[in-house]
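yo, Lipoprotein is done. seq:
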Amino acid sequence: MRKSTIFSIAAIAALGLAGCSGSADKAESSDTQSAEQSSSTGSAGGDLTVLKVGASPSPHGQILRFVDENLAEEAGLKIEVVEYADYVQPNEALRSGDLDANFFQTVPYLESESEARGFDFVAGEGVHLEPLGIYSDKIEDIKDLKDGAKVGIINDPSNQARALKLLADQGLVELPESGEASVATVTPLRGIELVQVEGPTLVRALPDVDIAVINGNFAQEGGLSASEDALVVESPENNPAVNVLVWSADTDKADAIKKLEDLLHSDDVKTFIETTWTDGSVIPAF
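structure:
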């Protein structure tokens, strides 16, 4: 497909993560729970603090595994990555205490979910941006989109507002004069039909729509490349929709989480992102 990259500013408020090894003195094999909670001993001496972090498989899980395999031990950490295929479970698992932190979301999404679900979480600084893209199985240029087309769009509010801004830049919807854009508040133009779809299924929905606006992580997981497959790509310029590490306000692992937050903003991680996603589908935000 041909790609025409446009420069847009996300229309959302600016604010938008395995197992443990045993300790040097191994626990009794029958005491499984104790073994899972024990710290492992680093090569430099001292115990490693285990952090269980929920994450989307790509790129979040990949970034966390890079940190775990290359940087965590020296910082006294062991990162256990728990993968999730949706945007709801990681926050619920963090609230229940099943996770120590999660890494999959933007601050605008976190704020929207916190207001709706009563979360008391803390967000770190931006780690990376996954630009939205417009993809299609039916056309090779956005200019070829016909009137009355079906347009797939994510159904969660903050990501939906961001996607609608990208569609507005293409003259496909008119945004409201005030308030956050949503399928209910925008005016579709050229007779297009907005079809709301769960984020993880947007790629699979491509045969059923004419185009779809797909989040970077879902596009990657579905085998799509922003540089090679997208008709239009969201610009990172002045874009607040960066992904962040999130943890509970009352966590008892604050020091360890601060270390992980620092590692996620290290030069090593920046280089890993730039050399792993050379197509620009994941961009460092620091």
